Amino acid sequence: MSKNKRWLSVIAAVLVSSAPAFAAEVPASFDAKNCKAEYPKASLMNEEQGTVSMSFLVKADGTVADSKVEKSSGFKNLDKAAIKALSACKFKPGTKDGAPAETWTKVDYAWKLD
Protein backbone atom coordinates (compact mmCIF):
# COMPACT_ATOMS: atom_id res chain seq x y z
CA MET A 1 0.00 0.00 0.00
CA SER A 2 1.30 3.45 -0.91
CA LYS A 3 2.34 5.73 1.95
CA ASN A 4 0.22 8.53 0.49
CA LYS A 5 -2.90 6.37 0.40
CA ARG A 6 -2.77 5.20 3.97
CA TRP A 7 -5.66 6.07 6.15
CA LEU A 8 -4.62 8.30 8.96
CA SER A 9 -6.20 8.30 12.30
CA VAL A 10 -5.56 10.80 14.98
CA ILE A 11 -6.89 10.39 18.44
CA ALA A 12 -7.22 13.24 20.85
CA ALA A 13 -8.27 12.94 24.43
CA VAL A 14 -8.78 15.56 27.04
CA LEU A 15 -7.40 14.55 30.37
CA VAL A 16 -9.37 15.96 33.24
CA SER A 17 -7.29 16.41 36.32
CA SER A 18 -8.96 15.81 39.62
CA ALA A 19 -9.25 19.09 41.47
CA PRO A 20 -9.34 19.20 45.27
CA ALA A 21 -12.86 19.12 46.71
CA PHE A 22 -12.56 22.66 48.09
CA ALA A 23 -11.71 24.17 44.69
CA ALA A 24 -14.82 24.27 42.51
CA GLU A 25 -12.84 24.43 39.28
CA VAL A 26 -13.62 22.57 36.08
CA PRO A 27 -10.95 22.62 33.34
CA ALA A 28 -11.67 23.68 29.77
CA SER A 29 -12.46 21.06 27.14
CA PHE A 30 -12.84 20.81 23.36
CA ASP A 31 -14.60 18.66 20.78
CA ALA A 32 -11.90 16.36 19.36
CA LYS A 33 -14.11 15.50 16.36
CA ASN A 34 -14.17 19.13 15.19
CA CYS A 35 -10.59 20.03 16.05
CA LYS A 36 -7.94 18.00 14.25
CA ALA A 37 -4.40 18.65 13.17
CA GLU A 38 -3.16 17.92 9.67
CA TYR A 39 -0.45 15.27 9.56
CA PRO A 40 2.80 17.02 8.59
CA LYS A 41 3.95 15.78 5.16
CA ALA A 42 7.53 15.13 6.28
CA SER A 43 6.29 13.14 9.28
CA LEU A 44 3.97 11.16 7.05
CA MET A 45 6.77 10.35 4.60
CA ASN A 46 9.05 9.30 7.48
CA GLU A 47 6.23 7.27 9.08
CA GLU A 48 6.54 9.16 12.37
CA GLN A 49 4.00 8.34 15.06
CA GLY A 50 3.63 9.24 18.71
CA THR A 51 1.59 10.97 21.37
CA VAL A 52 2.26 14.53 22.46
CA SER A 53 1.03 15.71 25.88
CA MET A 54 0.21 19.41 26.03
CA SER A 55 -1.27 21.99 28.38
CA PHE A 56 -3.44 24.88 27.26
CA LEU A 57 -4.41 28.01 29.16
CA VAL A 58 -7.94 28.69 27.97
CA LYS A 59 -9.55 32.09 28.52
CA ALA A 60 -13.14 32.52 29.69
CA ASP A 61 -14.19 33.12 26.06
CA GLY A 62 -12.80 29.73 24.96
CA THR A 63 -9.72 31.00 23.12
CA VAL A 64 -6.22 29.77 23.93
CA ALA A 65 -4.01 32.24 25.78
CA ASP A 66 -0.95 30.01 26.16
CA SER A 67 0.20 26.49 25.35
CA LYS A 68 3.13 24.24 26.11
CA VAL A 69 4.34 20.74 25.36
CA GLU A 70 4.49 18.70 28.56
CA LYS A 71 5.83 15.51 26.93
CA SER A 72 7.05 15.26 23.35
CA SER A 73 5.88 12.67 20.84
CA GLY A 74 9.55 12.26 20.01
CA PHE A 75 9.17 14.26 16.79
CA LYS A 76 9.31 18.07 16.68
CA ASN A 77 7.12 18.30 13.56
CA LEU A 78 4.31 16.35 15.23
CA ASP A 79 4.58 18.39 18.43
CA LYS A 80 4.50 21.71 16.54
CA ALA A 81 1.56 20.66 14.36
CA ALA A 82 -0.50 19.57 17.38
CA ILE A 83 0.20 22.78 19.35
CA LYS A 84 -0.55 24.97 16.31
CA ALA A 85 -3.81 23.22 15.40
CA LEU A 86 -5.23 22.91 18.90
CA SER A 87 -4.25 26.48 19.83
CA ALA A 88 -6.52 27.66 17.01
CA CYS A 89 -9.48 25.59 18.27
CA LYS A 90 -12.38 27.01 20.20
CA PHE A 91 -12.54 25.35 23.62
CA LYS A 92 -15.47 25.10 25.98
CA PRO A 93 -14.26 27.40 28.77
CA GLY A 94 -13.50 26.01 32.18
CA THR A 95 -15.33 27.28 35.22
CA LYS A 96 -14.48 28.43 38.73
CA ASP A 97 -17.35 28.40 41.20
CA GLY A 98 -19.78 27.90 38.31
CA ALA A 99 -18.68 30.91 36.24
CA PRO A 100 -16.58 30.79 33.03
CA ALA A 101 -12.94 31.42 33.92
CA GLU A 102 -9.40 31.11 32.62
CA THR A 103 -8.18 27.58 33.35
CA TRP A 104 -5.41 25.20 32.31
CA THR A 105 -6.34 21.92 30.67
CA LYS A 106 -4.26 18.95 29.56
CA VAL A 107 -4.62 17.28 26.17
CA ASP A 108 -2.95 14.17 24.77
CA TYR A 109 -2.86 14.09 20.96
CA ALA A 110 -1.94 10.76 19.34
CA TRP A 111 -0.52 10.66 15.83
CA LYS A 112 -1.02 7.21 14.35
CA LEU A 113 -0.66 5.76 10.86
CA ASP A 114 -3.03 2.94 9.97
In short:
The chain is built from two helices and seven strands. It has helices at 41-45, 76-87; strands at 8-15, 25-26, 50-58, 64-71, 94-96, 99-101, 103-113. It is found in: Cell inner membrane.
Structural commentary:
The chain has helices at residues 41-45, 76-87; strands spanning 8-15, 25-26, 50-58, 64-71, 94-96, 99-101, 103-113. With 114 residues, the protein is mainly beta. The protein has a single domain, classed as TolA/TonB C-terminal domain. Strand 3 (50-58) and strand 4 form a beta hairpin.
Topology:
Layout: E1 8-15, E2 25-26, H1 41-45, E3 50-58, E4 64-71, H2 76-87, E5 94-96, E6 99-101, E7 103-113
Antiparallel strand pairs: 1-7, 2-5, 3-4, 3-7, 5-6
Membrane topology: Single-pass membrane protein
Domain TonB C-terminal: 24-114
Signal peptide: 1-23
Mean pLDDT: 85
What's the arrangement of strands in the largest beta sheet? Answer: 1-7-3-4
State the shape.
elongated
CATH class: Alpha Beta
* Count of the separate structural domains: 1
CATH superfamily: TonB
pLDDT under 50 segments (min length 5)? 1-22
CATH architecture: 2-Layer Sandwich
Alpha carbon gyration radius:
15 Å
DSSP helical segment count: 2
- Biggest β-sheet: count, sense, barrel? 4 strands, antiparallel
Compute the number of strand runs.
7
Keywords: Cell inner membrane, Cell membrane, Membrane, Protein transport, Signal, Transmembrane, Transmembrane helix, Transport
GO biological process, one term: protein transport
Family: Belongs to the TonB family.
Pfam family, one: TonB_C
